[in-house]
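User: I'm designing a mutation panel for DUF561 domain-containing protein and want to avoid disrupting the core. Could you give me a predicted structure to guide residue selection? Please restate the sequence first so the numbering is unambiguous.

Assistant: Good idea. Sequence first, for numbering, then the predicted structure tokens:
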Amino acid sequence: MTILSTLQRAFEQKNALKVISGLHNFDRDNVAAVVKAAEIGGATFVDIAADADLIRMAKQLTQLPICVSAVEPEKFVMAVAAGADMIEIGNFDSFYAQGRRFEAPEVLELTQSTRALLPNVLLSVTVPHILALDEQVALAEALVNAGADIIQTEGGTSAAPVSPGVLGLIEKAAPTLAAAHEISHAVDVPVLCASGISSATAPLAIASGAAGVGVGSAINKLDNELAMIAAVRAIVESMHTSQVRV
């Protein structure tokens, strides 16, 4: 399947940025602010909840590709009909606090079911960070064989940073960075490094093998649109201009 041209270029240049409003975020004003900030700040695409009204609103606000996240394949059919450009099985972080786990067999089954319903839509799938690293790699390989076009990593909720400042940001990003490193060496599709990523760690994600990053709470939790725009721009600039030194 051909990746949308703007995404393909960004993935090839290893500077794709997905701004995530939140799988459970149905606050119209907040989603609108996130979408507008993503466009103005220079993001590559946006990721919103599977809601037809939100999708139609986002299509009016931005020319960026719109990704819709869900964990129920049937919702994707509605989302694509409403105008979604691509779909994402994942952004599991919001479920963990509820005690909801996603194991490898379920994620693979969701991918297979989604592909059966929508064989030609660009599909991203998150690999749960609750799996051991070798299990994450094995699942990523199986997901690609099942039709995933993009693999997304996560891990911010499992991190327990103890240091302040930049060191703490690196500690928070460590699980998803490790997953991106291992998975990117095992699959031949773009890997998007998400969960716990900031402007300080986005370049580290690229150095770890990711083709781009996904950022959610670092942007959608801010209390005004100007701050959101500034946060998006900072991440974009960090990937475009930073030379990683390790």
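For picking mutation sites, this is relevant: The chain has eleven helices and eight strands. The CA atoms of residues 17 and 44 lie 5 Å apart.
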